[in-house]
Amino acid sequence: MKKIERDGQTPMLMFDNSVFIPLVLKEIEEGRSETSIIIARGVSMRPFIEDGRDKLVLGKVNSIAVGDVILAEVVPSIFICHRVVRIENGMVTMRGDGNVVGTETFPLEQARAKVVQVVRKGKTYTLATSKIWKVYSALWPRSSFLRRYLLALYRLLWMRQIPDRLTVIFQTKKSV
Amino acid sequence: MRVKNNFLLREVVGEKILIAYCGGSADFTKALSLNDSAAYLWHQLQGREFKVDDAVKVMLDAFEVEEAEARQDVEELLASWKAVGCIED
Hints:
heterodimer, A: alpha+beta, Umud Fragment, subunit A, 8-stranded antiparallel β-sheet, two-stranded antiparallel sheet, 35% strand, B: alpha+beta, two-stranded antiparallel ribbon
């Protein structure tokens, strides 16, 4: 755990995921609440779920299907929240929408929570019924090649993140 | 003022954390960390109407602190609680 001082605001406590996520899961698993709400961290579920901006509403795992977004303990104390891409012989494979390469495969029982809603830019999407989520899920490419370019475009146009090599080109042109 | 009864104090690795419960959800995006004296005040203010003076008195009765210092701490604390919505007027 670390404490982050913020000007004019109460300090922010940052817990390690291995401490924080079990606490969040305990609320659901012990039935104290139906769902737990957390801030999404990381960029691996881009472009729909953005780091630090959006919220995830987690519920119990009553069933898992391909396309669901699951929070799993992929190895002890390591938690990942990605989309299910395959279920075979009791093993689940997940892949982040924002990941070009890499998947996680683990036994079904290691799925600890299901994302039931996403609060994106303040608007709530219920994943089981949202048409926008369904259309996005159907259109977002599985191909690594297409993903690489779409994600690069997303970073450039929406996130205004200019790659280092382009920054160098712009700076060089300005200085000439 | 009154503390809302949908906030619960939980202990996580030695830290006291106030968590919001709303509509069947535990909202960890509105969690607030309290030190020991703030947690004591939170417990004392549960289930009753109070004013800033009442909160200051709770602190003065429990801790050896000057009134001006207690008042300043209480005012800052209540402002931060108001900001996350765990007390209401």
